[in-house]
């Protein structure tokens, strides 16, 4: 570090990761200078953050909320913008680090803008890598952009790999909490409500990733993410359920040694690493683990029968081409439909399975444009398939009266 503040942009500033990032800025005000804060449509929340952190720029994706944002920020000197182009321009504004924390495939183009500036990108938005994997990584290489993982598991693996030779690495292990339905039987899972799926036992996160954690699709997305981040084939990426969620990832070396990274389940820890690496670690406000209090660490194999989303992700990764982008789009459509009580919990993995059986999943994919086209098409197919599920599903909870 040269003593100058780190110019920081936060994409998805109003979300769970965005707010955790800003809480690190609170701890180290002198270390950061905010360039841009970007959100989707919550003008009130973005304006409140902009008033507090005074970035140069506050931008919403939803242009219908621009007038409200402007009004709320009048007299602050913070420039405002809205719409897709404004979001991309904000992502491309000169910065030293960009935290990419927009949820879903909507984060792909803004994150890519940051990558194309050669900026260091602290990547929370795993869907970028799932949708556009190889093309995204090649863009980063071409523009000299370093991608630092924010996902706790990938941050753990990244840190473990700093302690061992890459040639000696046999495989990696991503841990999963198992989510709220870890010990539920299938009949009970079929009746699970959005409220139950959103009650994660360990992590506080946005709604989409919380449902992904309940289906274990999140871990499937993370297998694909790990493949692209660490260049490992699917069969060398293992998943273990670890309900205490304090061991985030392990690297297994050829001499039988396992290196693990442990920390409280609090995203400020991996975020602070991604904001500071390769300089000295930043205190994150997360205290060290009290291992005596935790007492024991349990590990178990995930159950493929109750959590088929994991096998779907492995299949998509092995098949290559458009399969992972199709899986991601199907999952996003299905999670939204589940949260809107249009389908049951088990229908999420069912819809993904149907989409993977669609010819679109066999399409080649060699560019970001291909990935975006596949994403659009897969969402249309998924919406159409939802109607079949609507007809077939009899295990759903009745719609909520509100
Ligand atoms: N939360 C975690 O602990 C965690 C851990 C690891 C990885 N991740 C990953 O990090 C990403 C964000 O997760 P999250 O839990 O922070 O989600 P979240 O709480 O739902 O926040 C999503 C953020 O994205 C913004 N957004 C939504 N659509 C947008 C668009 N079209 N353009 C610009 N901004 C948009 C939202 O703005 P509005 O508020 O205006 O809607 C909000 O700021 C996801 O990819 C997730 O998988 C999260």
Fraction of residues in helix: 40-55%
CATH top-level class of the largest domain: Mainly Alpha
Number of domains: 2
- Look up the CATH topology of the largest domain: Rna Polymerase Sigma Factor, Chain: A
The small molecules bound here are: NADP nicotinamide-adenine-dinucleotide phosphate
* Rg value: 21 Å
Poorly predicted regions are 397-402
The side-by-side strand order for the widest beta sheet comes to: 4-3-2-1-5-6-7
Q: What do we call the CATH homologous superfamily of the largest domain?
A: RNA polymerase sigma factor, region 2, helix turn helix motif
Strand share of the residues? 5-15%
Number of alpha- plus pi-helical segments: 17
Average pLDDT number: 95
| Main sheet makeup | 7 strands, parallel
For the termini, the CA-CA separation is 53 Å
Number of strands: 11
- Quickly give the CATH architecture of the largest domain: Orthogonal Bundle
Name the shape in a single word.
globular
Give the topology string: H per helix, E per strand: EHEHEHEHEHEHEHEHHHHEEEHHHHHH
Class from secondary-structure proportions:
alpha/beta
How would you describe this protein?
This protein has 402 residues and is of the alpha/beta class. It has 17 helices and 11 strands. The chain has 2 domains: 145 residues, 3-Layer(aba) Sandwich (Rossmann fold); 212 residues, Rna Polymerase Sigma Factor, Chain: A (Orthogonal Bundle). The chain is 46% helix and 14% strand. The strands form 2 sheets. A 7-stranded parallel beta sheet has the order 4-3-2-1-5-6-7, with helices on both faces. A 4-stranded mixed beta sheet has the order 9-8-10-11, covered by helices on one side. Strand 10 and strand 11 form a beta hairpin. It is globular, with a radius of gyration of 21 Å. The termini are far apart. The C terminus is likely disordered. The structure holds NADP nicotinamide-adenine-dinucleotide phosphate. NADP nicotinamide-adenine-dinucleotide phosphate binds next to helix 1, strand 2, helix 6 and helix 10.
């Amino acid at each position: 570090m040269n003593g100058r503040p780190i110019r920081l942009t936060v994409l998805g500033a109003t979300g769970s990761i965005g707010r955790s990032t800003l809480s690190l800025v609170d701890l180290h005000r002198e270390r950061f200078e905010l360039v841009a804060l970007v959100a989707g449509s919550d003008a009130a929340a973005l304006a409140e953050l902009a008033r507090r952190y005074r970035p140069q720029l506050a931008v919403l994706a939803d242009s219908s909320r621009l007038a409200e944002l402007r009004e709320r920020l009048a007299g602050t000197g913070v420039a405002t913008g809205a719409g897709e182009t404004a979001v991309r321009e904000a992502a491309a504004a000169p910065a030293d680090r960009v935290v990419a924390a927009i949820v879903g495939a909507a984060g792909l183009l803004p994150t890519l803008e940051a990558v194309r500036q050669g900026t260091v990108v602290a990547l929370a938005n795993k869907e970028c890598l799932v949708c556009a994997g190889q093309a995204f990584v090649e863009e980063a290489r071409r523009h000299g952009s370093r991608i630092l993982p924010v996902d706790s598991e990938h941050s753990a693996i990244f840190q473990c790999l700093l302690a061992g030779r890459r040639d000696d690495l046999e495989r990696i292990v991503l841990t999963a909490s198992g989510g709220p339905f870890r010990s539920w039987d299938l009949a009970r899972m079929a009746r699970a409500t959005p409220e139950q799926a959103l009650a994660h036992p360990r992590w506080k996160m946005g709604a989409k990733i919380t449902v992904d954690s309940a289906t274990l699709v999140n871990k499937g997305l993370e297998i694909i993410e790990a493949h692209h981040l660490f260049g490992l084939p699917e069969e060398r990426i293992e998943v273990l359920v670890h309900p205490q969620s304090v061991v985030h990832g392990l690297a297994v070396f050829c001499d039988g040694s396992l290196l693990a990274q442990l920390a409280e389940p609090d995203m400020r820890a991996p975020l602070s690493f991604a904001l500071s690496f390769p300089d000295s670690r930043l205190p994150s406000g997360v205290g060290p683990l009290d291992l005596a209090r935790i007492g024991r660490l349990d590990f178990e194999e995930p159950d493929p029968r109750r959590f088929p989303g994991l096998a779907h992700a492995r299949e998509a990764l092995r098949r290559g081409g458009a399969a992972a982008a199709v899986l991601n789009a199907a999952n996003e459509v299905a999670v939204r439909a589940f949260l809107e009580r249009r389908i049951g919990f088990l229908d999420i993995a069912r819809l993904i399975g149907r989409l993977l059986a669609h010819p679109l999943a066999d399409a080649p994919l060699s560019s970001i444009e291909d990935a975006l086209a596949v994403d659009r098409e897969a969402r249309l197919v998924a919406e159409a398939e939802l109607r079949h599920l609507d007809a077939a599903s009899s295990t759903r909870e009745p719609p909520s009266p509100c």
